[in-house]
Amino acid sequence: MIFLFTKKAFFDSWDNLLSLIFYNLLYLIVLALLWLSFEVFTTFKLLGLLLLLFAFVLNAFYLSSLSFQTKTYVYYEATQFSAIFKNLFKKWQHSLLFAIIHVALLSLVLIVVPFYFSFNSLLFYTIALALLWVALIVVFALMYYYPLAIIMQEDKPFKTLKKSLLLVVDNIGFTLYLALHTVANFILTIFFVTLIPGASSIQLSHHVALKFLLYKYDYLEENEKANKKELPWDELLFEEDEKLGKRTLKGTIFPWRD
């Protein structure tokens, strides 16, 4: 499963590379606003804070729309560039909760946890570490948050968040790999100056992850007595594997050598 996930995430990104670069260039607006808020904060605290909050909100709405776009690539659906603007407010409630969670996480890591660590007490150290673990689990859950919001259209934001947390708990091993995959993409994004893989490829990979997990839950729903730890992944992902075909990294970058 992990190998096929990595393969699909890469080739779905490669096949839609120009589109993803375009979306990443648009995301520079969010990054520029974030940078501006820090610059302003050094001189005008209140204005800088307001700009930072706006940057978090803009980030949440843009990632929501970006998730709509990347979902179409993962599910082999048609889409248009202009949809990135049309879908900005389509999941506005989910986007607001996403922004609030990020503000809360930032406050937790930068203010609350250091406050508890400032006390020379085992009890406060324990509380601080527990809060960090909670923050980490929420960060993991947010990887599934927008894909779930888009696939399960009727769910309200808190229900989506709850399902995201349940996915983390029920798929700890795969979630850890997805987190490492996301971190690797983030590092490559810095190296390639945000052009690739960027926010778009990261969102795409999260959709691939959810799509594969949904195969698992569809199978378990049809086979209630099945062993969760011994799932027939080759069978479940056979169609996805067939659609990808026998593609290789060398053949993709240097097709004349394959």
What does this structure look like?
This protein is mostly helical. It has one domain. The chain contains twelve helices and no strands. α3 crosses α5 (92-117) and α5 packs antiparallel against α6 (122-151). It is globular. The model has no long low-confidence stretch (mean pLDDT 93).
Detail the topology: elements first, then pairings.
Blueprint lengths: L1 H14 L1 H25 L3 H30 L8 H4 L5 H26 L4 H30 L5 H14 L1 H20 L6 H25 L10 H4 L1 H7 L4 H5 L5
Helix pairs in contact: 1-9, 2-3, 2-9, 3-5, 3-9, 5-6, 6-7, 6-9, 8-9
Briefly characterize the structure.
This protein has one domain (2-257). It is 79% helix and 0% strand.
The major beta sheet can be summarized as:
none
- Assess the beta-strand content as a share of residues: under 5%
Order of helices and strands: HHHHHHHHHHHH
Number of strands: 0
Helix content bin: over 70%
**What is the alpha-carbon Rg in Å?**
20 Å
Low-confidence stretches: none
Terminus-to-terminus distance: 25 Å
Instruction: Figure out the total of helices.
Output: 12
Anisotropy-based shape? globular
What do the pLDDT scores average to? 93
Number of domains: 1
Structural class of the helix and strand makeup? mainly alpha
